[in-house]
Amino acid sequence: LSRDYMNFLQALHYLTASMNEAVVFNASLALFYLAPREDLSKIIFPLVRCLTINKGNVQQLMLQQAMPVIESLADEFKPYYKEFFVFQQLDNDVVKNYKLTILGKLCDEDNVYAILREFEQYVRWHSYPKFVQSAVKQITKIALKIDAVTDSCLKGLLRMLDSKSQNLASEAVIA
Fold it and tell me: How far apart are CA 54 and CA 25, in angstroms?
């Protein structure tokens, strides 16, 4: 790498400490696409901070732009999985779905029980039928991905069959 390129990357690193979330977010994204792989761990915390501080349409846009980063660096984001828990009243429908997808991607054997407990709460939000369906789909994906929880997920899905909510029961049948 040339000296100018290294100076440019260093300047981007400095920008991740800015007080302006837009500057931090865009500098982090630029580093993701331009910096060597070993330097990418430095962008995780600034990105998480930007994704959790902002709400509404700004958060929606940031989550959309950050999805490739989160997918590529899922192991580095795993310690921050709780930051992606969904807020029933504050998050709009698109943000809820992004966060649900992110939680599914960050789920591993260390945090699976905490994430499944969170998903259990989500399936009780009957006033958000599409979100409930997405939560059941994520539970199914986790059950297929992590063998240690397959039986408990199956038992939970069977309990959902007795739900008064048509959407929940039908999604549990499909799952």
Answer: 11
Query: How far is the C-alpha of 92 from the C-alpha of 55, rounded, in Å?
Result: 9
Rounded to the nearest angstrom, the gap between the alpha carbon of residue 118 and the centroid of all alpha carbons in its chain is 13
Q: Of 104, 98, 175, which Cα lies nearest the Cα of 131?
A: 98
Cα dist from 128 to 39, 42, 64, 114, 175, whole Å:
40, 36, 21, 22, 18
- Buried/exposed code over 115-154 (b: 16+ C-beta within 10 A; e: otherwise): bbebbeebbebeebeebbbbbbbbbbbbbeebeebeeebe
Looking at the predicted structure, is the pLDDT value of residue 85 above 90? yes
Instruction: Examine the pLDDT at 150 and tell me if it is beyond 80.
Output: yes
Q: What is the reported pTM?
A: 0.87
CA 91, 54, 114, 100 dihedral sign is positive
Chain segment 12-37, per-residue pLDDT in tens? 999 999 999 999 999 999 999 999 99
Residue with tokens 């966060």, as numbered in its chain: 99
Count Cβ atoms below 10 Å from residue 84 Cβ, excluding itself.
24
Amino acid at 62: M
